[in-house]
Every structure is written in C-alpha cells, then in structure tokens.
Amino acid sequence: MSTMTQDQFDAALDIYGPDLRLWPSALQQPAQQLLQSSASAQAALSLAKRLDEELDASLPPAPARGLPLLKEQIMARVLASGPQTSLILRFWAWLLAGPRLMQVLLLRPAVLAMIPLIGGFLLGMSVADVGGADDDLVAEMVYMAFTDRFEGYVNGQ
Amino acid sequence: MTDASDETLMARVQERDQQAFARLLDRHAQSLRNFLYRFSQNTADADELCQETFLRVWQHAARWEPGRVQFNTWLFRIGHNLAIDRLRKHRETISDQLPEQSDESAELSQALSREQARDTLRAEIAKLPERQRTALLLCHFQGMSYQQAADILEVSVEALESLIARARRRLKQTLKPLVKDIDIAS
C-alpha cells in the first residue's frame, strides 16, 4: 500500500470533500494513515468539514411555500401552449421518439421511407390527369415500342 | 403513471401528454428550483428560470433522445444554460448588488457575526466562475454524481473534478479568517 503526502491529501480533499467514505477506495486507507500521524492533515480535514457545514448554512433550499403556485403557473402555460403545436412537429415527435424498440427501429423509419414513395405516386397520377393522355396515342406508342414491324407501320404497309 | 420512469413519461410528453408532463413536473420541480435558487440567490429569478426551463421541456420535447442522456441531466442542462444566459445579461446589476470583499479580511473578520460571515461566503460563492459554481452546486447541494454533473456541464469527469477543487480552494481561503469569528459568535 502506498503512502500519501500532505499535498496529495489536500488535493484529494478539494476534489472529493471531507467525507472519506466518498473518496476512491484506493485513497481511503492511505488518507486514514496520514490522518493518524499528521496534525496538518487533521486541520485540513477539519477546515473542509467546516466549509461544507457553512455552505449548507449559507445556501439553504428555496422556500417551499412558493412551489405549488409555481407548478400551477407552469401547467397553465403548458395547457395554453398545447394546441398550438403544429401537426408537422407532432408527427416529427411521434416519428423519432418512443420507448418501444420495434417502433423506433423499424416501423417509424418505414413510414418515413414511404412518404416520398406515396408522394411520387400521387404526383404521377396528377400529372397523368392534367395531361389528358389520348388513349390512341398511347396505343400507338406501345405498338412502336414493341413491334418489329415498325418500319412497315411508318410506311403505311 | 406514478411509478413510470422519466423516460416513459418523456415518451408520452413527446406525444403531447399533459398528465405525463405534470408528473415530471411534480418529480423534478423542487430539485431544479433549489438548484436555480442557489445559483441565482434570488427566489423570483429561480421561479422564473424554473418556469422557463419546464416550458422549454414541453416545447422541445421532441429533441430529447432516450438513451442518450438521462432526463434529469437534460433538464438541469437546460436550466443551467438559461441561468447562465440571464447571469450574463445582468452581470453588472448582480455584481453591483453583491457586498464588496475587503482586502483587509483579517481585520474585517473580527467584526463579523455568524450571519455576516455567511453573507460573505454567499457573496464569494456568487463570485465563483460560472462553471466552478455550477459544479459545486450540482455535486455538493444536489448530491449528483460527478459523472452526471460532468454530463450537465458537458465536460469530462476530470475537468469537473478540477472545477470543484478550484471552487473549494477559493472558498476555503475565504472561510479561514472567518472560522474564528463564527465560533466566537456561536
């Protein structure tokens, strides 16, 4: 087991505080040994304990009496802001969040991937409608594309 | 819903469940308010910051990613960032309100009562660099682990240890001449 110097003890005291039980286990035993033999280590520990006590006394918790009203005010603001959330944001939150693994890893990305697919399909349908494609013209195009008699067709044979 | 974890409740909040949000508020408001109160040393500021923090949680719930960071860590990070922003905006005002620290601390200490000594310590805490103060408040007062406090401050654990050590050293220097007077007063 290694020994601890006063400087090492002071440094550990500043980092971990005066409760030696909260120090890393490797430091506890050497610190205890030093304390048994060193008056300056004992004084340093005493001052650190005093600092913690004075910190607690100097900065008490917030007065509890205002807390219920604060919670009410927060909830009122939340209730007021709730319906303003846009559909897109709500959809985004739904898509990216959730506690269930399947939901997050498979289903939601799948829905996300389908969006451009469906969009493309709808766009294609709408373009076809707008164009008002002539059935005869389509039939001729198909014929030209798939027949080896295209040349004869063109020459009117 | 009472026993639901923070993560489960946040998933519901992301789907705009106000009851889940109310449960999170019940669970964490006091702790966050205490932290903000100690940080700002002002009840009105602490309440306003606490309100703003929870409102941000509600409005930006979609940004929270389960598994990446604990809800509590995320909450305190938002609160801390808001507190820092406010502090920077009002830095001059705040520094004007703090009692001046005398260079002749030995002479001054003889005249200080216990409460005056604590006022001095409070002022010294308020004068700590922001990150040192936050590190000290999170670990000493909120009882957070060094890892969680480091996550909130977005620094390594080693950096957090350094912040705490520097804060304690500075406060001990302030406390040393006052200890004798506190003991006499009590």
Written description of the protein model:
The complex is a heterodimer of chains A (157) and B (186). Chain A has helices at residues 6-16, 25-37, 39-58, 67-81, 87-96, 101-131, 135-146, 150-154. Chain A is an all-alpha fold. Chain A has 2 domains: 6-58, no CATH class; 81-143, no CATH class. The model of chain A has no long low-confidence stretch (mean pLDDT 80). Chain B has 186 residues and is mainly alpha-helical. Chain B has 2 domains: 1-97, Orthogonal Bundle (Rna Polymerase Sigma Factor, Chain: A), CATH 1.10.1740; 103-186, Orthogonal Bundle (Arc Repressor Mutant, subunit A), CATH 1.10.10.10. Chain B contains 10 helices and no strands. In chain B, 39% of the residues are buried. The chains are: A mainly alpha (157), B mainly alpha (186).
CATH architecture of the largest domain in chain B: Orthogonal Bundle
Structural class of chain A, please? Answer: mainly alpha
Taken in chain order, the helices and strands of chain B follow as HHHHHHHHHH
User: Would you count the extended β strands of chain A for me?
Assistant: 0
Name the shape of chain B in a single word: elongated
Shape of chain A: elongated
Rg of Cα set of chain A: 39 Å
Range of helix content of chain B = over 70%
Order of helices and strands of chain A: HHHHHHHH
Residue runs with pLDDT of under 50 for 5 or more positions of chain A: none
The largest interface is: A-B, 42 and 55 residues
Q: Please describe the biggest sheet of chain A, giving its number of strands, its sense, and whether it closes into a barrel.
A: none
Strand content of chain A is under 5%
Work out the count of structural domains of chain B. 2
Task: Profile the largest sheet of chain B.
Answer: none
Mean pLDDT across every amino acid position of chain B: 86
